[in-house]
Design brief:
285 residues, 7 helices, Cyt_c_oxidase_su3-like_sf, transmembrane, mainly alpha, Helix Hairpins, 72% helix, Four Helix Bundle (Hemerythrin (Met), subunit A), oxidoreductase activity
């Protein structure tokens, strides 16, 4: 279809995806607020995964059929770029909440700044971070916080290494070395899975031994919101890389045409950069 713009057929996936995502969010809200709704949340999640799989299947079939041209390639690149920008804004909101609490709210409660009189609410409160003793005595803070130089550092090294291995795989694909690409991409998937396992161990330690929970004051809330959403992105990114590995093994990409692979690289590198920010501002400082 050289010289023309491919217009996809009418698709049901956007509507079904929106409904599944809405169900997942409703279920998640019910679990967080009322402690029930797990089934609704899981059904919504299953629906989102199914829609993504079927929708991307259609895109792969269309691409392999030769229906896409240079204009469609530019559309995909712009779409992926705006998607990553939306993800930047997503995490910026949560980082912003963390910085607001640390730089403004806690000092105000400690008597500093123009809103220092708010310290009258809890005159015995001492402003410090990490906040192990919330000002309201009805809320129990964590018993202790994680040392950044153990599991968090290991996970940081794992994700940085995964960016390197993925870059090697990408360069190998561009040079036509499919076997090298496959091996280094498989290594990246293994590193991603290792990160997920270590994050799970850390969450177990947080709940079982450190007293870090969603109910452990503002520290527990910001810790799990930031690391939890990032963990979800790592899981999604690992699934995407597994799909890319299968496609490489099926010889779906060429050195000239492999934007599906390249887009997965963009996403994974973004997830890695976010983790570096998390490591610095959640664990270290």
């Amino acid at each position: 279809m050289s010289g023309s713009y491919y217009v996809p057929a009418t698709s049901k996936w956007p509507v079904l995806g929106s409904l599944a995502l809405g169900m997942m969010m409703v279920g998640t809200g019910m679990v967080l607020v009322h402690g029930r709704g797990t089934l609704i949340m899981l059904l919504g999640l299953a629906g989102v995964v199914a829609v993504m799989a079927l929708w991307f299947r259609d895109v792969v079939v269309e691409s392999r059929s030769g229906l896409y041209d240079a204009q469609m390639d530019r559309s995909f690149r712009w779409g992926m770029g705006w998607f990553i920008f939306s993800e930047v804004m997503f995490f910026a909101a949560f980082f912003g909440a963390l910085f607001y609490v640390r730089m403004f709210a806690i000092p105000w409660l400690g008597g500093e700044g123009t809103k220092g009189p708010t310290a009258l609410l809890w005159p015995e409160f001492t402003a410090h971070w990490p906040l192990l003793s919330p000002p309201d005595p009805s809320i129990s803070g964590p018993a202790q916080v994680f040392s950044p130089w153990h599991l968090p550092l290991v996970n940081t090294l794992i994700l940085i290494s995964s960016s390197i291995t993925l870059t090697v795989a990408h360069e190998a694909l561009k040079e036509g070395h499919r076997k090298i690409c496959r091996n280094w991409l498989a290594g990246t998937v293994l590193l991603g899975l290792t990160f997920i396992v270590i994050q799970g161990v850390e969450y177990y330690e947080a709940y079982a031994h450190y007293g870090i929970t969603l109910e452990a004051g503002i520290y527990g809330a910001t810790f799990f919101i930031l690391t939890g959403f990032h963990g979800v992105h790592v899981i999604v990114g690992t699934l995407i890389l597994i799909v890319m590995l299968v496609r490489v093994m099926k010889r779906h990409f060429s050195p000239e045409e492999h934007f599906g692979f390249e887009a997965s690289c963009w996403y994974w590198h973004f997830v890695d950069v976010v983790w570096v920010g998390l490591f610095l501002f959640v664990y270290v400082f």
